[in-house]
Design brief:
Layout: E1 4-9, H1 15-24, E2 29-34, E3 37-43, H2 48-58, E4 61-66, E5 76-79, H3 81-85, H4 90-96, H5 101-112, H6 118-127, H7 135-144, H8 151-160, E6 164-172, H9 173-183, E7 187-196, E8 199-205, H10 211-224, E9 232-236, H11 242-246, E10 250-254, H12 258-263, E11 266-268, H13 275-279
Parallel strand pairs: 5-6, 5-9, 6-7, 9-10, 10-11
Antiparallel strand pairs: 1-3, 1-4, 2-3, 7-8
Helix pairs in contact: 4-5, 5-6
Length: about 280
């Protein structure tokens, strides 16, 4: 029978919390993995509720991981872009140049919580961009887009471990194509903005990469690689990531909405994307 370790992560972890968690999960030892992550060995997953309660109160990320599970045991890593690989929602930042950021951001957040039909939310938000010069896309890329801490390390580690990598987003190809080149993703899929006479037309073209579209790309790539779901990791933060995450045996909610945290295998709400590497070294 496979045993488990309890991995605990946060920018700051008190020794008292580690000792208390070790008692709660009947752990056999505590090992420091990094400055922000510890592993409690021989943990009993039956203590999940007690561990969750303690970690929630102490602002700690936690996860019961099968002993010996390594990143190299997987074959595919699928990751969302906005607020996951990067720190911003690109469409909100583009809308700022039209003076409509608050309006668009409110729709974005409602869609991420699953309160608005996602394709309808995209239509409404993209319409708000109509008339903006195409140059605002470059400005967002240069001036506002920042990688999430740990993003480069995660993708690089996945590639070294032999995983194929997929960036799949409800955002726009202008950004995913550049991130694919910058970080070395094997594939990147998202929506294409229509440009007419050097200005945004307020609509997208081509197959829509919505929740179903994201899931279909993960399923297609998994099939092409002849992988079972147990060898797929999917990471996202919004309701439109749930279908994609259901295509993976291991799903990670990254600084995510409650609806996503409830459904995911693991949740990282305090660590960066390097936290995935603490779960699966």
């Amino acid at each position: 029978m496979t045993g488990f370790h309890l991995v605990v992560q946060a920018p700051e972890i008190a020794t008292g919390d580690l000792k208390a968690l070790a008692r709660l999960c009947s752990g056999t030892g505590i090992r420091r993995l990094t400055g922000e992550a510890y592993r409690i060995e021989g943990a009993d997953p039956a203590s999940r509720e007690a561990v969750a309660a303690h970690c929630d109160a102490a602002n700690l990320d936690w996860g019961f991981v099968p002993e010996g599970r390594r990143l190299a045991d997987f074959g595919l890593l699928a990751v969302d872009m906005d607020s996951t690989v990067i720190t911003i929602e690109c469409i909100d930042e583009i809308a700022d140049y039209a003076g409509r950021k608050s309006e668009v951001a409110a729709v974005t957040q409602a869609a991420m919580r699953g309160e608005i039909d996602w394709p309808e939310s995209l239509r409404r938000r993209v319409e708000a961009l109509a008339g903006l010069p195409e140059s605002v896309l470059e400005r967002v890329w240069r001036e506002r887009l920042r990688l999430t801490p740990g993003a480069e390390a995660l993708v690089a580690a996945a590639r070294r471990a032999g995983l194929k990598t997929l960036l799949v987003s409800g955002g726009f190809t202008y950004f995913t194509d550049r991130l694919r080149e910058r970080l070395g993703f094997d594939e990147a899929w998202s929506n294409e903005l229509v440009i007419e006479n050097g200005r945004l037309a307020g609509r997208v073209t081509g197959p829509l990469v919505d929740a179903a579209g994201k899931a279909s790309h993960v399923a297609r790539m998994r099939g092409a690689l002849a992988l079972g779901k147990d060898r797929v990791i999917a990471i996202g933060d919004g309701a439109n990531d749930l279908a994609m995450m259901a295509e993976a045996g291991t799903s990670i909610a990254f600084h995510a909405k409650p609806v996503v945290r409830r459904e995911a295998t693991y949740a990282l709400s305090h660590a960066g994307l390097e936290g995935v590497l603490a779960l699966f070294p």
